[in-house]
Amino acid sequence: MSTPEQGHTSYEIPITRSCFGCGTENDAGLGLKPVRDGPVVRAEYRPRAAHRGFTRTLHGGIIAALFDEVTAMAVATEVGAFTATVELTVRFRAPVPMEEGLLLEARDAGPCPEDPRRRVAEATLTGEGGELYATARGVYQPLSIEKLGRFIEVPEER
Fold first, then answer.
1. Which CATH number fits domain 10-148: 3.30.43.10, 3.10.129.10, 1.10.599.10, 1.50.10.100?
2. What distances in angstroms separate CA 63 from CA 11, 20, 60, 95, 103, one per listed residue?
3. Confidence of residue 22 (pLDDT cuts 50, 70, 90)
């Protein structure tokens, strides 16, 4: 996992091509382009018809997937390692309309009180007018390079 050059506070986060959240080669995915800006990871999202729940609202599972992506990235960029989701709690505060652009913001909240090897992240989902639609809290396990092989193909060193 790469980190920004010393002194830079804003940078685009490296992604994996096949990822549902940020992958550039996943046509069914969310297409997020997260950016780290100081302590905050931000991503914009415009709902797609295929991600609809009720006729006029975004599906709750898609909202959870959006949160999982940005909270994991907040932790990963903080610790400099890929992470695995251990727990994700989403609080839905209002129906999310399909016609509106959305903003996700997440930040690493530090070690998990129950298990300091893990990290906590918190996030919000707001609309263009600033309405708060949902919040989330996730717990993430940073992965060693050995454990990372369970999740992705790790290129062999040359």
1. 3.10.129.10
2. 24, 13, 5, 11, 11
3. confident
CA-to-CA distance for 111 and 106, rounded, in angstroms?
Answer: 15
Q: DSSP string covering 91-149, please?
A: EE-S--BTTS-EEEEEEEEEEETTEEEEEEEEEEEEETT--EEEEEEEEEEE--HHHHT
**Quick check: 147 pLDDT over 80?**
no
Sign of torsion over alpha carbons 38, 18, 69, 81: negative
Distances (CA, A) of 32 to 15, 25, 66: 9, 12, 8
Domain boundaries, the chain: 10-148
Of 77, 58, 72, 65, residue with least CA distance to 122: 72
pLDDT for residue 28: 87
Dist CA 70 CA 30 (whole Å): 12
